[in-house]
Amino acid sequence: MYAATIPAVPYIAPWDIPFDDRMTMLRRGSPRAAYFYSVPDTSTFRYRAYNIAQSLAASGSRRGPSAAWFAEADLDRIGRVLDACDVLVLCRNSLYTDRIARLAAQARARNRRILFDVDDLVFNPDYIHLLMNTLGVNMRDQAVWDYWFAYVGRVGATFALCDAALVTNDYLAEHARAWSSKPARVVPNYLNREQQEVSDRVWEAKAAGGWARDGRICLGYFSGSPSHSQDFALISHTLGRLMDEDGSLWLRVVGFLDVPPELQRHRARIEYLPLQDFVNLQREIGAVELNLVPLQDNPFTNCKSELKWFEAAVAGALTVASPTLAYQGIIDHGRNGWLARAHTWEAVLRDVLVSVDDHRAAVAPRARQEARERFGWDRQTAAITAALFAD
After folding, report:
1. pLDDT of res. 325
2. Which of 75, 122, 289, 350 has a CA positioned 20 to 30 A from the CA of residue 110?
């Protein structure tokens, strides 16, 4: 684990700002997009609404497009939003209700274009069985089936209210087009300004300290939801064997994961940290040498974005990931990270671990530069504008 660090960053959700201030953001430029996300949160909302508005506001010019976000708490004033915007974006957690249907009808009456933003394959009921299996839920529980059919059905019903979709990658776009017969355009997930700023501080602290480590080699697993046990199972036996052989190996688990039985013998070298806010998460990622991204390979996981690579790269952590479509598209094996199929995880990890400092010196700067260039918060305006406002 890297010895240099930075203090914890005081965190206040940057999107908790008054309605009138968000209206000012929306009216700043032209054309204008109003994002509706039922209840803002630290995951999908951040990537799919907050980051968009931040990027479009970067220039400060009134000649370019603008965006802002609104939520259920704003519905009694939503007419003001619809009068001011050119495009209404209903985000995935805007599950169908009479209020969502009424919101769409109000937008339609004003001749506003309505887009649906979704970052997962959660609108087509044909994939519910696969989705549940991938998430490792209890498939013998009727209530679980009821929940997922209701959830996917309501997501799909909101999608049906819209003219087109905004998605995170080309593969998900293909699914959205096939299911809806509507256009789908890509706005990638990417870093926001706060993430980049704290990651720069993490990188600079490690560089100033000569990339010194504390004698441990820390493998990081960063889980944003409690549904990744099936993914982690791909590497748990491998990690157990490697930790058997090398007492300097530690595992850092941040977020949600019940460590499986095959790793219980190494509990003394497993560090658990609770789910972090998105700013301080960059501190924790930057402390580890290797970021582990095991994923099953199926249509659901192939709709996932590259975020676990770029959030690690910008903080100076190396990534080994399963070769889903997103990671195949961004990782050049051995150049800016590593790809490991289910049967090659052990071989790949051994190769990286045998000379982790040399690999860091060669790979980390390149990965960081590419992450900033492709997924920086100030590099997205053209893609956002084309997706939101092109005819």
Report:
1. 97
2. 122
